[in-house]
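Project outcomes to date are best conveyed with an example. Our students and postdoctoral researchers have been running inverse folding experiments weekly, and each run begins with a structure described purely in tokens. The record below, which covers 203 residues, was selected by the lab manager from last quarter's runs and is presented without edits.
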């Protein structure tokens, strides 16, 4: 996957063909006017979803994971843990032990130390501030996660267009708007398809 739009200075986003930049504009996105609150909400939702997925029946875990991607997670470590859950679910029902083994085998801890990664896993496996969601709630948690991703994408697109509005030659503004509209439409189609599939997961 290419770099997330939120990680790129807006002025460095090249004005090229839509097909060449789709991942940049449909990756993690950007935060809005209250980033602290948005981060808290995204983090809590992601943690609750990952906790539930690690205890979910195989059929639900597979069906839900099939509609998610690492790009939907704001917290990088959560994205790595999701990738491990997804890999485990191809062969067996996820469990904390199997997911942890997958993380260790693939270097999915990322830049975190083994100790820090273990603390993250422990917080997911045995949360102290909330119960683990039941299986029937897993698709709805996944929907909430992709809704957050989609909203962050809008924030990123609006930020990019505002930058173009202020700095691009006036004769190029319509082209920039058309490009960003194309990104929005692609993201919307992806979001709607995944969301509909999640509503149809048998619980």
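After processing, the design step wrote out the following sequence:
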């Amino acid at each position: 996957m290419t770099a997330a739009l939120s990680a790129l200075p807006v002025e460095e986003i090249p004005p090229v063909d839509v097909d060449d930049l789709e991942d940049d504009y449909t990756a993690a996105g950007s935060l809005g006017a209250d980033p602290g609150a948005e981060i808290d909400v995204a983090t809590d939702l992601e943690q609750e979803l990952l906790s539930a997925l690690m205890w979910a029946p195989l059929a639900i875990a597979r069906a839900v994971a099939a509609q998610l991607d690492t790009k939907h997670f704001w917290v990088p470590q959560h994205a790595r843990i999701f990738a491990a859950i997804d890999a485990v679910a191809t062969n067996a029902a996820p469990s904390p032990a199997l997911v942890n083994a997958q993380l260790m085998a693939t270097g999915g801890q990322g830049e975190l130390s083994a100790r820090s990664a273990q603390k993250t896993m422990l917080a997911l496996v045995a949360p102290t501030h909330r119960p683990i969601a039941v299986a029937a709630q897993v698709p709805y948690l996944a929907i909430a996660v992709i809704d957050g991703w989609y909203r962050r994408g809008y924030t990123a697109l609006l930020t990019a267009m505002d930058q173009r509005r202020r700095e691009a030659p006036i004769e190029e503004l319509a082209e920039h708007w058309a490009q960003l509209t194309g990104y929005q439409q692609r993201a919307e189609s992806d979001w709607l398809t995944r969301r509909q599939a999640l509503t149809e997961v048998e619980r």
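The two ends are 31 Å apart (CA to CA). Residues 138-167 form the longest helix (30 residues). The training component of this project remains on track.
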